[in-house]
Each structure stands twice: as C-alpha cells, then as structure tokens.
Amino acid sequence: xxxxxxxxxxxxxxxxxxxxxxxxxxxxxxxxxxxxxxxxxxxxxxxxxxxxxxxxxxxxxxxxxxxxxxxxxxxxxxxxxxxxxxxxxxxxxxxxxxxxxxxxxxxxxxxxxxxxxxxxxxxxxxxxxxxxxxxxxxxxxxxxxxxxxxxxxxxxxxxxxxxxxxxxxxxxxxxxxxxxxxxxxxxxxxxxxxxxxxx
Length: 199
Known about the structure:
Distance between the termini: 37 Å
Largest sheet: 2 strands, antiparallel
Mean pLDDT: 78
Number of strands: 2
Strand content: under 5%
Shape: elongated
Structural class: mainly alpha
Helix content: 55-70%
C-alpha cells in the first residue's frame, strides 16, 4: 500500500531536522535525527511518486549527502548544500576565509587596527549594551529564516503555485498547535519517551 502524505508533512520534518543540524558529513545518520530523516525520506519518496516531474529538482548535498528539493533554476547545479545547515555553514566558512585573507593585506591590517582602537575607546559600559543588542539581532536573523524559505520553495513546487512567506508562516503556526501528523502505536510513544532522557 502506498503511503499518502499530508502536504504539510515535508515542512514539519524539514524544520525538525534543521533543529538538530551539525556541520559534519554524517550528522543525520545517528540518534534521534536518523529517525526524523527516515520519516522525511518516506514523505520525500511519496512526493516524488505523486509528482514525478519533481525528480529533476531532487539534489544531494555536496557536504553531507542528504537529499533535498531545490528550485527549478538550480536543476543543472551539482555544488549545492542542503538547506538544513550545510549551505549556511559553508557560506560562513567561506566568508571567514575571505576576511582572514583580507586581514593579511596592509589595508586590512590598518582597518582592523582602527576597529580595535574604536572598540577600546568606546568603554566597557557602552560595549556591553552593544554586545547584548548584537546577540539579540543575530539570534533573530539566524536559524529558522533559511529553513522557512526552503519550506516555501518546496511547498510551491509540491502545490504547483507560488506560495508567499505569510502563507507558510500561517501554516507553520497552525501545525505547531496540532498533534503529530503521523499515527503511531502507544508503544512507540513510550519508547520515544524513554530514549529522550539519559541512560
């Protein structure tokens, strides 16, 4: 019997998987994430069975090897990172490399010297306030924003129409208030509860 997926299930699994991301090649093959990824692959295959034209949009992450859907504009590319975190981690790593390379030039050293001098002159009281504000803005920018864009793109592909970010946010709010979409035996819930705590 073929598994019938709910259109919202890919979104749920994508967000849950992204919460457990670690920047290493086998991050999704161990522990709780492995179970989530297996369920994600069941839904992934069901989407492909129902929409065979999306097979062209299926890609494998160049870093960790997990499968994901990409936008139609990226069909010919083989250098993509997964939306669960590899893409952002690779982008940060490359930016840090460019920054380090720039700091080895005379212009970069001079700029760094000025930044350090300004930071020293501001004082510790003002500096603490600015650090706290910077941490809050970083928390708001990082994390879920990229996975929500991915969810919007996949939902657009599956539904065959353009889906706005507001629609996705509304859908995710509705899902977060619902009970789990998968039906399981009572024993599975008990085993999950036992596995959550330390041994």
